[in-house]
Amino acid sequence: ETAVFQTPNYHVTQVGNEVSFNCKQTLGHDTMYWYKQDSKKLLKIMFSYNNKQLIVNETVPRRFSPQSSDKAHLNLRIKSVEPEDSAVYLCASSFTEVFFGKGTRLTVV
Amino acid sequence: GDSVTQTEGPVTVSESESLIINCTYSATSIAYPNLFWYVRYPGEGLQLLLKVITAGQKGSSRGFEATYNKETTSFHLQKASVQESDSAVYYCALDYNQGKLIFGQGTKLSIKP
User: Fold this and answer.
1) Does A88 contact chain B (CB < 8 Å)?
2) Is the pLDDT assigned to residue A28 strictly greater than 60?
């Protein structure tokens, strides 16, 4: 049973718009992550967030920012989307192993 | 840097035949990373299939097995007899820093009835 919940499942938007994706985990984990799966199906970590400490993958553009209200939530905001942001974004959380949500598919037109 | 390479897909295997999906890794930031196989079934999220955290050990789940071989830096996934329900995309991954994972490119597996 999925314990990492992401919304929306799909989102289509235009270049330059701002988008925000939600993620909630019910596992009581302290660490959450965002991963990106691109058009070539490559999965790469974007952020990890633990105890208000954010670790950013250096390749992530600055228009991306995670937002956390508490340790069960880690949202992802993209300030001004670009075509190459089209991808599936996976939220995850971990204690001893990593659990993933089903993903949000973003299409930028 | 750290990396994971696995069998290029798609792979098609007949039901009840054996399967091997190769996975090799390169770890520079950690000597003996934890190793994982994740699977994504159609319409579902990515889920852990099996993991091994000790070199030389074997992990198993749902009939699949993988052995952590530090000499060859490999973690191949094997199953003696596949079923149609095994059709999915399989990802090999290593943990380079407390839950931060590096994934292989994924191998799409289709099972012929």
Assistant:
1) no
2) yes
